[in-house]
Amino acid sequence: MEYLKGVVLAKASSSAGWKEMLKLRDKARKHILWKVRDDMSINVWYDNWCPISPICDIVTTREIYEAGLNINTTMNELVNKYEGTWPEGWSNEYLILNQSDILRTHDGTRDKAIWLDMKGKENMFSVRQ
């Protein structure tokens, strides 16, 4: 799933197939919803855990680094660093973030990726329509 996070770029020497797969990553990423459980495997910025959209669609990379975070920050790291809140000023600048509570209950299970079908409903992944 790391290739869905948007940090892998196609090189000039990459195969045509690989370049096409990278072009499709944003479409595929929108169909993977993360259920937050232990906060250990979810990338705050690129994984679709927030009901609004992936946070990378809202907050710039520059602001991420200015907050002392990086593009590989997990939910667990964010919760520990900012004690369950967003970095200072983000809640005022990005009001939409207030709709997403980053405090989670840890029920002892691992974070889980769920496939969303074309209607946005949770579904089992299949290559059949």
What distinguishing features does this structure have?
25% helix; 129 residues; single chain; alpha+beta; three-stranded antiparallel β-sheet
How would you portray this structure in words?
This protein has 129 residues and is an alpha+beta fold. 15% of the residues are buried. The two termini are 22 Å apart. The protein has helices spanning 16-29, 61-66, 75-82, 90-93; strands spanning 32-35, 112-116, 122-123. The protein has four helices and three strands, in the order H-E-H-H-H-E-E. It has a domain at 32-118. Strand 2 (112-116) and strand 3 (122-123) form a beta hairpin. This is RNA-directed DNA polymerase, eukaryota, reverse transcriptase zinc-binding domain protein.
Q: Over all CA atoms, what is the radius of gyration?
A: 16 Å
Mean pLDDT metric: 79
Q: Count all strands and give the number.
A: 3
Q: What are the secondary-structure elements, in order, as H or E?
A: HEHHHEE
What percentage of the residues does DSSP assign to strands (E)? 5-15%
Helix content: 10-25%
**Which regions are unreliable across 5 or more consecutive residues at pLDDT < 50?**
none
Strand order of the largest sheet: 1-2-3
The major sheet is characterized as: 3 strands, antiparallel
How many helical stretches?
A: 4
Please state the structural category. alpha+beta
Instruction: Sum up the overall morphology in one term.
Output: globular
Measured distance between first and last alpha carbons: 22 Å
Protein name: RNA-directed DNA polymerase, eukaryota, reverse transcriptase zinc-binding domain protein
Organism: Tanacetum cinerariifolium
